[in-house]
Amino acid sequence: MYIYDDAGLFDVEAGLSPDFDALWSDRCQDAITSLRRRISSGELGFASLPERDPIEIITWAEGRRAEGWTDQIVIGIGGSSLGTRAVLEAMGPAWRAAVRTHFAENLDPVTLHAILEQVDLQKTLLVVVTKSGSTIETMSQLWILYDALVKTVGRAQADRQVIAITDPQKGSLRALARERGWESFEVPANVGGRFSVLSPVSLVPLALAGYDVDGLLGGARRCLDGGDEAWMGLARIAAQHVALGDQGYGQLVMMAYGDRLNALIDWFRQLWAESLGKARDRRGARVNTGITPIKAIGAIDQHSQVQLYMEGPNDKQIVFVETRSHSIDLTIPASPPLPAPLSHLQGRSLSEILQAEAQGTRAALARAGRPTACWRLESTGAASVGGFLAAWMFITALAGELLDIDAFDQPGVELGKKIAHGLLGHPEHGALAGETVPPPGDDASDSWTARR
């Protein structure tokens, strides 16, 4: 149905009305005006992050690396870690970080124990990231890791090995950093977690790893190099997704062709889902809006999900994500000969075959009347990844304006957090614990009807 060109713009093939641009042009301009106003007022800080000079963070990281640290454990979840992971994984397994990076995200004791087994705590930094300072998953794992660190190197040295990235003034983590003398960086007050990848939230651990953070920010800045034309291009992408959603295409599959791209899709899923899934519009009317993001992996999911996309409900927008270049490639040798039905593959590179797989799958979906698009990164290096991150933050924010919802809050996740705290004994949220479903093991928990 549509394809992005190299700058990330759509060219409509099918599925949207021929007069789409005429119908949506004014709405796009209104969305741009509204978003720019919110940015200019200082309400939304994500847009100005690429303009900040990272030299202080780069110089600081060089100094810390010179101390001989071999590993860092990034303790965070959601927007506090997904961006960092996405950027580092885009470099591929052949890239050797200056400081190895491990992620303590989900509350899985087996995973956390494995991290502790992999590192020498005497040579490891703990980088804890939570703006609120009250994130249950992050603070729980921090305390386990900090306790292990204190037992290994002593309290005074442990405090030198903790780096806190949190709110400038308030919250439990900010208070701890002051009390214990932890080195700290600020999450700008006007930048939310899922829009924070170009802030110290990710720049600090990326710089410690030796990543090209200057190149990342440079690529992000170039996202809007075209001025008004670039703004309209991004708004047009947002509008096409919203319009397709209005037509019943309520699921957005992002399918990455290249293992290095997979974590970028994880980052996008949170950005899109938490920003656009809202119960009410700005006037308070109940709208229950949103387009569900789905991750797929090419070519793997050609053998699992594509059958559904081809012949199942026609309710999905499918965006292919590819890279034009690979830092390493392999070629199928000319001998010994493959069986005759496969002989045409000899002499072909794996990247060439992967591209053909993507093109073939997209063409087949288009013939089946399924909406498809393609976003091609020039590479998975810093500049291209920075452009991808910035573009999708703007597209998501503009989609929120078009939907007339606030893309920068997340009220739907707060109740669950409070109930969890109540179940664990928090005095202010104990009453909410009575609203839970029966716990595993109760007879009633075996019945779906009992849970509804």
Task: State the fourth-level CATH superfamily of the largest domain.
Answer: Glucose-6-phosphate isomerase like protein, domain 1
Order of helices and strands: EEHHEHEHEHHEHEHHHEHEEEHEHEHHH
**What would CATH call the class of the largest domain?**
Alpha Beta
Portion of residues in beta strands equals: 5-15%
The CATH topology of the largest domain turns out to be Rossmann fold
Structural class computed from helices and strand pairing: alpha/beta
How is the main sheet built?
A: 5 strands, parallel
Second CATH tier, the architecture of the largest domain: 3-Layer(aba) Sandwich
Which regions have little confidence, pLDDT < 50, spanning 5+ residues?
1-13, 444-452
Global outline: globular
Number of helices: 16
Structural description of this entry:
- The protein folds into 2 domains: 2-37 and 219-403, Rossmann fold, CATH 3.40.50.10490; 46-211, Glucose-6-phosphate isomerase like protein, domain 1 (Rossmann fold), CATH 3.40.50.10490.
- It contains 16 helices and 13 strands.
- It has helices at residues 20-40, 55-65, 82-90, 109-118, 136-153, 155-160, 172-180, 200-209, 213-221, 228-246, 262-276, 306-311, 350-367, 382-403, 414-423, 448-451, and strands at residues 2-4, 10-12, 71-75, 100-104, 124-129, 162-166, 183-186, 251-257, 278-280, 286-289, 292-298, 316-323, 372-377.
- The strands form 4 sheets. It has a 5-stranded parallel sheet with strand order 4-3-5-6-7, sandwiched between helices. A 4-stranded parallel sheet has the order 11-8-12-13, sandwiched between helices.
- α1 packs across α10 and α10 (228-246) packs across α14 (382-403).
- The model is unreliable at 1-13 and 444-452 (pLDDT under 50).
